[in-house]
């Protein structure tokens, strides 16, 4: 195979790797860029974005991309670069730069611009760095001009906000710092370092000093070119286009759902956009600036007196996601074009110019000799092995990153509610319990959305307990049978894999009266007739008095215990007698060597693995544990009973037949019955979308005699049972 074939293969591998990397980054916008509490609100808002305004933003983005590329090219040309890239080449570099600029904090992604120009198009390193540095300084000047314009408009209106004065101060400091550093401190520093290290024998010092001298020369060439007004004007135009586009994007998100935000004055929205950009530029660790950008914008809105800060946070997050979406899609496309169309890598281009200073003589000869060797190698039959290895490693890494993001997104749960299904048998068929009196409650989507339902065990009457538009689940009956606690989602649909975007409500069964007793909480469980526990924020177990609403923290991951900080917990259950807490946590979070780790936390903060499984719960008397475990015979589930002292495990219930995938074991208040859900198998596993049926089993009886309570193809889940004494 000839060299041309190998080079084509390398480019093809790099293109595939780049495409997978971009897809992975787009997935990460939703898997890691959006918090659990925000994701349910973000997705509907993104779906309702105005297409016309979004298209207008896209058009302005393309125009801004062209203008920014033109300014970069202008600065490189003014610096004296002989190998000046064409406009289409600068467009490629600028689009890729826009994509990678926020990948690292403090905008360290800007360095990608330097590498693309230097290694891809042979632009001398000093000119790459000088054009980048000057662009940043010019952006500060443009920011200063825009803030002055905002203050002027406020002054004409009769009031100048404190935020604008503060922004003007910050912009002034940034401008002074940047220009003093580039054109006062650097020209003074270069001769000083040259005299001090002129005779140094260390190559790295010689190379660094050479680059510093060339960088200063490049800056001075631009400074003395007489084009200052032109480059400043282009910089202001870039800022105007950028903020105009973001304002259109803000309107696109708010127009349909939040008209009061869409009606805010333009200068207030622009001020918030500037605040977000300044915050994103700070050296705060955050991938793609998520969280930091939104916090900066919300802070400005707060200072401007906007009340709906929670709504503003979601809106700015959507603006951020949409803008990143455009930058990654377009940047990924341009990166692929760059790989295929860039010229042969220019080896040593940053050192090929004439050596005007004697301190570089020996180093320059060595570099020219190495360059000659490289040129000779390029003419050989074979491509360098390191190029092939690098392409393979890059593509493999991108593939693994993409696969991880696909896996992560699958763990977020369904983005849409399941079909409501249909009844498949009469309700009377559901009950034949020999006069047992009591009722079962469960969550079901049979009415089109998940509501709480109650089935009387004696009459088989089915009653819809809640009718709220948002998803409701996890009903738990009070020990006296008078009340329910349950979880209600923040939005119409929230997957149960999301354990944050919920509030806990208390409902009186006799009257239907309900009230909220906990926010950002789920998995309620009764301790006694007036106290419950809830899981707040995904990692805090809190005890609440349902009458007084007094609350106290029972457990927090990583605080006075051996768990990693903020480890996500699932369905925690506190034993009111022994004070032991049991829950399920994922292997990746807790460090277990097997799947899930059913974990018990002692009152002193130590923990121990109970059994490999999930859905731990205490028996009614608090002496035993129930748990869902795998059935080794067919890969479905079974219920096991665990002695909390010896950790000995024994099978409690293992169904055979059609429904063999058991979940959600809950013992009755008298300890005689077990209510649970079951699906048809592992492939029908998802808790809130698959066809689960509810069963009631008398402890100690034949498992085949478990009574089926529901006959419906919709999703029924999280049952509880109360038996009259």
Say what oligomer this is: single chain
Q: Which structural class matches the secondary elements?
A: alpha+beta
Q: In this structure, how is the largest beta sheet organized? A: 4 strands, antiparallel
The counted number of beta strands is 24
The fraction of residues assigned to DSSP E strands is: 15-25%
Give the CA-CA distance, first to last residue: 84 Å
Radius of gyration using CA atoms only: 32 Å
Helix content: 40-55%
Number of alpha- plus pi-helical segments: 16
- Overall number of domains: 2
Strands of the widest sheet, in order across it, are: 3-2-1-24
The whole-number mean of residue pLDDT values reads 84
Stretches with pLDDT under 50, minimum 5 residues:
343-382
- What does the overall shape look like? elongated
Folded structure, characterized:
This protein has about 725 residues and is α+β, with helices and mostly antiparallel strands. It has two domains: about 300 residues, no CATH class; about 290 residues, TolB, C-terminal domain (Neuraminidase, 6 Propeller), CATH 2.120.10. The protein is about 45% helix and about 20% strand. The chain is built from 16 helices and 24 strands. The strands form six sheets. The protein has a four-stranded antiparallel beta sheet with strand order 3-2-1-24, with no helix packed on it. Strands 4-5-6-7 form a four-stranded antiparallel beta sheet, with no helix packed on it. A four-stranded antiparallel beta sheet has the order 8-9-10-11, with no helix packed on it. Strand 12 and strand 13 form a beta hairpin. It is elongated. About 5% of the residues have low confidence.
